[in-house]
Amino acid sequence: MKKKIVRIKDIAEKAQTSKGTVDRVLHNRGRVADDVRERILAIIKELNYEPNLIAQSLKSQRAFNLAALIPDPNLDSYWEAPHAGLEKAEKELRQYGVHISKFIFNSHSESSFIAKAKEVIREHPDGLLIAPIFYKEALPFFKEWADMGIPYVLFNTQIEHVAPLCYIGQDSYRSGSLAAKILRFGLHSPGTVLVAHVNEDISNSAHLITKEDGFRNYFKGEKLDGTFNVISREINFPDEEGPDKQLDEIRAQHPDLGAVYVTNSKAFEVAAYLEKNALKDIKLVGYDLIEHNQHYLNKGIIDFLINQNPLGQGYWGIHQLANHLIFKKEIPAIKFLPLDIITRENLDYYLDPQ
Questions:
Q1: CA 301, CA 293: separation in Å to the nearest integer?
Q2: pLDDT tens, position by position, for the chain (354 residues)?
Q3: What angle separates helix 135-147 from helix 110-123, to the nearest 10 degrees?
Q4: Residue 155 CA to chain centroid, in angstroms?
Q5: Do 22 and 115 share a domain, yes or no?
Q6: Does residue 348 form part of some domain?
Q7: Contact (CB, 8 A) for 168 and 207
């Protein structure tokens, strides 16, 4: 059933007063007799009146300058999807005066992040979308943006003890638990399970630590920690070298290695090693539908990918800022996006054009 549109004119007629009086009550301005005010408020409640925020925003003709502080997709293809998501949101919101300035930093350089964060301060945007992948370096800026009255939305990485307008992304702990559960189905005998943090500074990546906690605690909760030896390694290497040397050392130390959980989008690096060494019995789970991961998923070398919906993170991050700034909506502190389990059998359904 289509919802009936209630206009200020309808309220005024029912209250037997003028539209100007109704407007003063709605916006709590000017003097209105108490009995008239109470009558109007009762009618507003009875008719379930909701202001037309879209019309109001179009009428205001104000420009809203938003900033996006995000990693360079040319250096890490994972970030292509959030870029596409925020661009899609900007296109939809352009009619309301929304413009987005991108501040692109090197995801492997703390100094690059700091320099771009300082540029954001100089720009003084109306709102900010940020992927705070450098935890320690980001903390001082959160206070500065708050002091400047700039609402900010976090995506990809949830950080405690700060007060963003909203966090959008995965539940990192449950994400790790989910990875453990689906890997467990493929492990038919006791052995070692590797948590691989590939090309990450784990001490400065709070979300990856939380993922590992979720992964480990699944095995403990299922009383499987005596059956499976869960180990964790940071596997860092130059792009031209690959992880072969370090993975060789891990296999030499743990010849019963039965599974690998890659905590970021770099599962393809481990998959290439498994293929090269014909290691068909080692199960592999990772994240995200970047092209290299799709390749190894289709070949059956990556068993499962968990889709963190990075496009949706960028898209909804901008929309939450717009909902707050333009449409004056209440914004939930957390918007967790679904964690989808992707196999080669259902991959095509997640590759439709956005």
A1: 10
A2: 445 566 777 788 888 888 778 877 776 666 778 888 888 888 888 777 666 555 555 555 578 999 999 999 999 999 999 999 999 999 999 988 999 999 999 999 999 999 999 999 999 999 999 999 999 999 999 999 999 999 999 999 998 889 999 999 999 999 999 999 999 999 999 999 999 999 998 888 889 999 999 999 999 999 998 899 999 999 999 878 899 999 999 999 999 999 999 999 999 999 999 999 999 999 999 999 999 999 999 999 999 999 999 999 999 999 999 999 998 999 999 999 999 999 999 999 998 654
A3: 10
A4: 4
A5: no
A6: no
A7: no
Residues 142 and 91 both lie in one domain = yes
**Structure tokens of 85?**
């998501």
The residue range of the domain holding 23 is 8-51
Greatest Cα pair distance, the chain, in angstroms, is 86
* Alpha-carbon distances, residue 132 vs 139, 153, 259, 333 (angstroms): 9, 10, 30, 16
Listed residue (70, 313, 287) closest to 195, CA to CA: 287
Write out the DSSP string of 105-127: E-TT-HHHHHHHHHHHHHH--SE
- Cα-Cα-Cα-Cα torsion 348, 350, 352, 354, nearest 10 degrees, comes to -170
Per DSSP, the chain holds a count of helices (H) and strands (E) of 13, 12
Burial code (b: 16+ CB inside 10 Å, e: under 16) for 258-282 equals bbbbbbbbbbbbbbbbbeeeebeeb
CB neighbourhood size of 70 (10 A)? 24
The total number of structural domains that make up the chain: 3
Query: What amino acid occupies position 217?
Result: N
Residue type, 49: Y
In one-letter notation, the amino acid at residue 146 is A
Q: Report which of 226, 229, 290 is spatially closest to residue 259, judged by C-alpha positions.
A: 229
DSSP 305: E
In angstroms, rounded to a whole number, what is the distance separating the alpha carbons of residues 314 and 13?
Answer: 45
Terminal-residue alpha carbon distance, the chain: 30
Query: In which element (H, E) is residue 242 found?
Result: none
Spatial distance between the Cα atoms of 84 and 67, rounded to a whole number of angstroms: 15
CATH, residue 152: 3.40.50.2300
